[in-house]
């Protein structure tokens, strides 16, 4: 079974300028994800998609097999991620002449995952034919049934989701998870045919909070750097 790994890294980051190539423990941020993908031994190819020639050059230096120049229309702030990933899959298949049955997308801004997480999420999909795709997430600190609220049309607070009976503790509410944007896995036909990530038979691979930080701000980067330094590696 052929597997493709993609890493999609846009050059126009605003929250953390040039975050995909910002140094983390002496390596560009994107390099950590490329190394994890390679170390897993799961993939026929590791492809990096970017609108930035600088990011693509760094990716090549750190071992990416396929470099994909992203079209301008897929590199805007408003561009959705699914079309970018589909473009990467189709381009990789054109360049290699191969069909990839399993497509794994690793986010460069979530470098605290480890190789065991990648293996575990891939195994979850491949060991159950009913599963269409897999996302990763960590147990949520807030629950829509207990302490996550919205403002209604009149501007007053109400719980995001109501249960038929009231509960006194968050732990008594249904389990909820924060998507951590770390690992996404699809069967090829699902990725090409569906326009949503969450489908009726999407499975969740659980990761701990300490491996689930997605870098979207300078503070996030500081947290990741602190945790990575504390354990001496990513």
Quick summary of this structure?
InterPro entries: CMP-NeuNAc_synthase, Cytidylyl_trans, Nucleotide-diphossugar_trans. The protein is of the alpha/beta class and 234 residues long.
Instruction: Record the strand order, biggest sheet.
Output: 5-4-1-6-10-7-11
What name goes with the CATH superfamily of the largest domain?
Spore Coat Polysaccharide Biosynthesis Protein SpsA, Chain A
DSSP strand count: 11
Shape: globular
Oligomer: single chain
Just name the CATH architecture of the largest domain: Alpha-Beta Complex
Count of separate structural domains: 2
String of helices and strands: EEEHEHEHEHEEEEHEH
What is the helix content? Answer: 25-40%
Cα gyration radius (Å): 19 Å
* CATH fold label of the largest domain: Spore Coat Polysaccharide Biosynthesis Protein SpsA, Chain A
Q: Quick check: average pLDDT?
A: 93
Can you summarize the main beta sheet?
7 strands, mixed
The poorly predicted ranges are none
Separation of termini? 28 Å
Outline the structure in words.
This protein starts with a strand and ends with a helix. Helix 1 packs across helix 4. The chain is an alpha/beta fold. Strands 5-4-1-6-10-7-11 form a seven-stranded mixed sheet, with helices on both faces. A two-stranded antiparallel ribbon has the order 2-3. GO terms for molecular function: N-acylneuraminate cytidylyltransferase activity. It holds the Pfam family CTP_transf_3.
Topology, element by element:
Layout: E1 3-8, E2 23-24, E3 27-28, H1 29-40, E4 45-50, H2 53-61, E5 66-69, H3 81-96, E6 102-106, H4 115-126, E7 133-139, E8 149-151, E9 157-159, E10 177-187, H5 188-193, E11 202-206, H6 218-231
Parallel strand pairs: 1-4, 1-6, 4-5, 7-11
Antiparallel strand pairs: 2-3, 6-10, 7-10, 8-9
